[in-house]
Design goal:
The structure is a single chain. The protein is an alpha/beta fold. It has one domain: Rossmann fold (3-Layer(aba) Sandwich), CATH 3.40.50. Helix 7 links the parallel strand 4 and strand 5. It starts with 25 loop residues before the first strand and ends with a strand.
Length: 176
């Protein structure tokens, strides 16, 4: 891990989807699924989902996508459509492509998340709540399993910028 304190950098300076090339296989972060399935974000995201069987996914992403099954109101008429899209996407993920952390990965992810939180403490975007902490740890788990697999993370989540500064071997491509 790098010794310097990480800080959020200008997004314009970060590697961008479309102009940057992944150094290895691709791992899709949760926001890629959410934005592609809802029609938001660049068209490239939908193309990534179309090639889903060739991409890696973190176990944390699988959990986050399944979270909507319990969270959405079953009586809301929109729920069935959303759940069908999520179920379809999840069905396309090959089980061997789901990267699941082991005990060492969890420990590394906890340290990575804590280091990132310390680096931005007091900044405009700080990790203040239990929800912030849980989301940061899930993202750190995703970063660690991607690092272990040699995969490039595709995300819009700025926390991965912090992780790249702490773990220089981590490859991330961002989209807006």
């Amino acid at each position: 891990m790098s010794a310097g304190a990480p800080a959020y950098r200008d997004r314009a300076a970060l590697p961008k989807l479309g102009s940057a090339v992944p150094k290895g296989p691709v791992l899709l972060d949760t926001n890629v699924f959410i934005e592609a399935l809802t029609g938001r974000g660049p068209a490239t995201l939908r193309a990534l989902l179309a090639n889903l069987p060739r991409s890696f996914v973190s176990g944390a992403t699988v959990a986050e996508l399944n979270w909507v099954r319990g969270r959405l109101d079953p009586l809301d008429p929109r729920t069935a459509s959303v759940l069908a899209k999520v179920k379809s996407a999840l069905a396309q993920i090959e089980p061997a492509k789901i990267l699941v952390p082991d005990a060492e990965d969890w420990a590394r992810a906890g340290t990575l998340a804590g280091t990132a939180a310390r680096g931005v403490a007091g900044a405009a975007r700080s990790i203040r709540t239990a929800t912030d902490r849980a989301e940061l740890i899930n993202d750190a788990v995703t970063a660690i399993v991607a690092l272990r697999a040699g995969a490039t993370v595709v995300t819009r989540d700025a926390d991965f910028d912090l992780f790249m500064q702490i773990e220089p071997g981590l490859d991330v491509i961002f989209y807006d």
